[in-house]
Amino acid sequence: MSQKTWGGRFTGSTDSRVEAFTESITFDKRLFRHDIVGSQAHARMLAEVGLITADEAEKIATALDEIGQEIVDGKMEFVTSLEDIHTHIEKALIGRLGDIGRKLHTGRSRNDQVITDLKLWVRDAIDELDGLLLDLQKAFVESAEREHNVIIPGYTHLQRAQPVLAAHYFLAYVEKFQRDRERLRDCRTRVNILPLGAAALAGTSLPINRESVREKLGFDSVARNSLDVSSDRDFALEFVFCLSVIATHLSGWAEEWVIWSTTEFNFLDLPDAFCTGSSIMPHKKNPDVLELTRGKAGRVIGALQHLFVLVKGLPLAYNRDLQEDKTAIFDSMDTVGGCLAVAAPLVRQTKLRREVIAARLDAGFLDATTLMEALIARGVPMRSAHEAVGNLVRACEERKCRLRDLPNSLFEAVAPSHGATVKASLGVENAIDAFKSYGSTAPTEVAKRLDEWKQKLEL
Ligand code: ARG
User: Fold this and answer.
1) Cβ(318) to ligand 1 under 6 A?
2) What Enzyme Commission number(s) does the record list for this chain (predicted)?
3) Distance, CA of 13 to CA of 159 (rounded, Å)
């Protein structure tokens, strides 16, 4: 009898180069736990509908547990001739139970089995990511609380724009990672639909009960169309898209902190434990963790590209190309999981260099927009106020001074009889206090948001 599960139709054996070329065991062995859980549910269902006996189902379930332990203990020998994890486990089962083991694959195909395993794996990955993202959010909220009233420059185009509270800055990232968590939660709803029972592509003539398997494996519903199931990798695309957005958020943040930790900016005191040195330049403290976080985003976005190109031209239903989905899914999850695991402690241990930041807040006209709004509030049309402040900034650049160093007469000329009050709106502290709108950096608004996040994240 052939070694292959599909050997019956074949006379010759497979070329060893083909075995090496078509195998997936080197990367899909990490699905073994999910494969076992899926097979146990399938076996118990087979017993319920009378396709095997209850005793056979329990023997299968017990043997599968033992096989799982063997894999954990590193005792299973993985060989390319057995292609993938599904075949390895089934062969091991048959090795233990003989004909009883030969019954497990009843009413099932590797096509629906592999998607079931993958969906179970992705579901666990999503739950793990949610925990990691939550921890990172907590780290940012803690920083927001610690640095609450520190005023920092806000940037657009990486040019000084308006002052913001440090808490407002940290909470901006909490919002981004909240959307990432929501996106994953939404993705999970489509991951959590049971594929098993679609069999190869058309279903089966055997009296299987998919609803029972659904319940056993904790899926929310049963996939309606077997042809769709066997070709569907939307869930993988969505999952890796979600990972790509997380990686993109992390990368932007990492880039910002790389810049902020330069001598030129000097805004941050990065923890030694999260930096590395140079083998030749003794003074160096390099932000490698942040740089790699930025760099690894490329791998994750690359994985999304990989998946899109993989599925874009596939006719229904299963095609072997789909075996290539796993490296993209696993690598992007490992990469993002790894980035998140170091991001949270790095955020927690990084401090703002408050004195350095404060000493330079007068540079860059952070209060110019507040001055313009003070003029608008006193009846100057917006465009005129914009132009007038632009002129004042130009005057400052000529005199090399701040807006508040200009003579009162210049303010009086722009806002007759309001010159002094308008001038009194200058300075970053006044600018911060002037903010009012919902969601702005106004201290009362930021304090509310901080309280809301502390409650929501149970801090
Ligand atoms: N290792 C295969 C995969 O990952 C399992 C499915 C194989 N199905 C088949 N018809 N050859 O896609």
Assistant:
1) yes
2) 4.3.2.1
3) 68
DSSP state letter for 266: -
Which amino acid is present at 155? Y
Query: 324: CA distance to ligand 1 center in Å?
Result: 10
Please report whether residue 457 resides in a domain: no
> Which residues make beta-bridge pairs with 165?
151
Q: Is 110 in the pocket of ligand 1 (CB under 6 A)?
A: yes
Q: Answer yes or no: do 174 and 320 share one domain.
A: yes
Check which CATH number belongs to the domain holding 410 and give it: 1.10.40
Q: How confident is the model at residue 2 (pLDDT cuts 50, 70, 90)?
A: low
Report d(CA 433, CA 370) in Å as an integer: 10
Active site residue 24: no
- Which of 6, 87, 111 to probe ligand 1 with, by most ligand atoms within 8 A of CB? 111
Q: Which backbone phi and psi does 406 adopt, to 5 degrees? A: -70, 155
Q: Which residue's alpha carbon is nearest to atom 10 within ligand 1?
A: 111
pLDDT of residue 7: 86
157 is an active site residue: yes
Distance CA 287, CA 278 (A): 11
pTM for the whole structure: 0.97
Ligand 1: residue whose CA is nearest its atom 12: 323
Set 157, 409, 417, 437: catalytic member: 157
Indicate if the pLDDT at residue 6 is higher than 90. no
Residue 105 has what pLDDT?
98
In this prediction the ipTM stands at 0.97
81, 168: one domain: no
Domain containing 19: what range?
7-106
Distance 171 CA to ligand 1 centre (A): 45
